[in-house]
Amino acid sequence: MPDTDQALWRDLLSAVQRSDPGVCRHWFSEIKLSGIESGVMELVAPSRGHVEYLRRECMRVFTEAAVEATGHLLGVRFVTEPTLQKSAATDGAATNGHAPQPASAIDELTFSPDYTFESFVVGPNNRLAHAAARAIVDTPGRTYNPLFIHGGVGLGKTHLLQAICVGIEQNSPDARLLYISCEGFITRFIECVQSGRMDDFRHQFRDVDLLVIDDVHFLAKRDRTQDEFFHTFNSLYQQQRQIVLSSDAPPDQIPDVEERLVSRFHWGMVAPIEPPAYETRVEIVKNKARNRGAKIDDDVAGFIAARIDSNIRELEGALTKVQMLASVDESPVTMEIARSALGEERRKEPAPVTIESVVDAVTAYYDVSLSSLQSKKRHRSIAFPRQVCMYLAREHTRYSLEEIGGYFGGRDHSTVLHAVRKVGKARQTDEHLDAAIRRLERELTGSSKPSGE
Ligand code: ADP
Ligand code: MG
Question: Are 179 and 111 in contact (CB under 8 A)?
Answer without folding.
Answer: yes
